[in-house]
Amino acid sequence: MYDCLVKHQLATQDYIKSIAKLSLKEGVDVVKLKWMALKLNVTNAAVSDMVKKLVKEGLVINHAYKGIELTDQGWFMGRRLIRHHRLWEVFLHTTLNVPWDEIHEEAEHLEHAASDALMNRIDEYLGFPTTDPHGNPIPNGDGTLSFNANEQSLNNVSDGEDYVVTRFESLDATYLQYLTHHGFAIGVSVKVVKRFDFDHSVLIDMAGGSLQLSYQISQQIFVVKSMD
Amino acid sequence: MYDCLVKHQLATQDYIKSIAKLSLKEGVDVVKLKWMALKLNVTNAAVSDMVKKLVKEGLVINHAYKGIELTDQGWFMGRRLIRHHRLWEVFLHTTLNVPWDEIHEEAEHLEHAASDALMNRIDEYLGFPTTDPHGNPIPNGDGTLSFNANEQSLNNVSDGEDYVVTRFESLDATYLQYLTHHGFAIGVSVKVVKRFDFDHSVLIDMAGGSLQLSYQISQQIFVVKSMD
DNA sequence: CTTTTAGTTTTAGCTTGCTTAAAATTTGCT
DNA sequence: AGCAAATTTTAAGCAAGCTAAAACTAAAAG
After folding, report:
1. How far apart are CA A158 and CA A223, in angstroms?
2. Residue B44 pLDDT exceeds 90
3. What's the CA gap between B168 and B176, in Å, rounded?
4. CA-CA distance, B226 to A62, in Å (whole number)?
5. What is the block-wise mean pLDDT of chain A (228 residues), using blocks of 10 residues?
6. Average pLDDT over residues B67-96
7. Do B96 and A14 touch (CB under 8 A)?
8. DSSP per-residue string spanning B166-195
9. Fewest C-beta in 10 Å: which of A197, B51, B84, B185?
């Protein structure tokens, strides 16, 4: 019934999605195998091994010792999985009221299980949302993905100016709970009042009061200039 | 990330669910390995092999050469999967309007991907349905499963009396399309007007006209005496 | 009570995706 | 340029779940 196909496909899909996400996140085409190993929690050797198979299937290009890159076909598969994942997140959050910090984990499994036809139905049911509950853009059914070019990481913006939160990049449940607890959400206004060079942390001001964010956290919060 | 656990669990789950379904369908405790092999589309050897592992995990009892039986723990897992499957079917059908004949296939994949917590949310969202769109009962969250003791297969009922359709047992998409096309659905009134001994087919009467059903089909349609 | 037939189990071997260990290559630093 | 550290690749091997084929068991039929 599944001939190791399920497993195989699952592994393939997870690898492709990881390459796509790392590529988008780091803003580069070529992804280091080490990043993959860390992200998927396997050894470098396992990644190197799998890369051979992905190359054989025409999904990635291997620049020996330099890193890997998705082919057009690989990108198509990657965006499809990201689309499935983010649509499930919207659905779980808006329709079933699953808490913000639990949806990622649940969607991680559902993304592999649903057909394209079903995802299109869910897309329609949800009214064709453009972003997921973390603010990440949702690829279209045809495989296109648009970005907000004006977005900046919170640790890169100018001090003293007003910004609006647009996106939280892949933060785990613990961080999301922490941020929610302190009043953070998509659309909230924030301002950097002080930055500390020794650890690159920032002190920010928002409706709920002020808050100190580590470099790691502020880096994953994206904002645009306030229109006020 | 998944250590071959995903594959393992998927296989385990499919085997357990199949044993549970065959056991319920045939009304016996002990299931022949051959049935499993046919259902899962693998060789007898593969089933025999897997049975060893399931025994080791305490999920089944192997009556050597006679067949296998689920332990209490095995039954619990089996009913859980049946619950997931049927809840997804209701959801797909009532909320997303996925056609009757497509929901089984889609649910087959989703049932493995969702957590118990999510299924409970979906159960609540759907208003705690008691049967799926094919009329099959949905096990409770605590693992109990109730039957309609008055149900009879359409090829066992008395000629000339009025009955109401309550359940379609695991019919594939083609049959479901066929039946829908001829006006069959849960709650429809039917009457057996004639039965043919040579092939055990039956001629039935219903609102939309009369229809000849083969033994194989009539056997999978369940009804109760009409209350009119 | 033996033979036939149907179903079960064992054996040997395959593929996938993983591991560890060691070898090869690149990169960064002086 | 040259060496050390980091990364990538290869090699050998393991577990899961499958197949094919051979060996076995049970039960029905003569």
Report:
1. 11
2. yes
3. 9
4. 68
5. 48 97 95 98 98 97 97 97 97 96 94 96 98 96 86 90 91 84 91 88 90 89 88
6. 97
7. no
8. EEE-S--HHHHHHHHHTT--TT-EEEEEEE
9. A197
Q: How many domains does chain B have?
A: 3
In a domain, A146, yes or no: no
* Among candidate residues B70, B94, B115, the one where a domain is terminated: B70
Across the interface, whether the CB atoms of B110 and A115 are under 8 A apart is answered no
A26 and A64 both lie in a single domain? yes
Give the closest of A6, A14, A98 to B121, CB-based: A98
Give the residue whose CA sits closest to C9 at C1'.
Answer: B48
CB contact under 8 A, B98 and A115: no
Say which CATH number the domain at A46 has.
Answer: 1.10.10.10
User: If 0-12 CB within 10 Å is exposed, 13-18 middle and 19+ buried, where does residue B63 land?
Assistant: exposed
What pLDDT is recorded for position B1? 34
Residue A7 zone, left/alpha/beta (φ > 0; ψ -120 to 50; rest): alpha
pLDDT of residue A67: 97
Helix (H) or strand (E) holding A11: helix A5-26
Residue with tokens 């479901």: B176
Q: How confident is the model over B113-143, as pLDDT tens digits?
A: 999 999 999 999 999 999 999 999 999 998 8
Residue type, A12: T
**What pLDDT, on the 0 to 100 scale, is given for residue B3?**
37
User: What is the chain A residue with the closest CA to B47?
Assistant: A1
Q: Could you tell me the residue range of the domain that residue B122 belongs to?
A: 79-141
Query: Which pLDDT value is given to residue A8?
Result: 56
Percent of chain B predicted with pLDDT > 70: 96
Residues A10 and A62 in one domain: yes
Q: Is some CB atom of chain A closer than 8 A to the CB atom of B5? A: no
Distance CA B206, CA B164 (A): 10
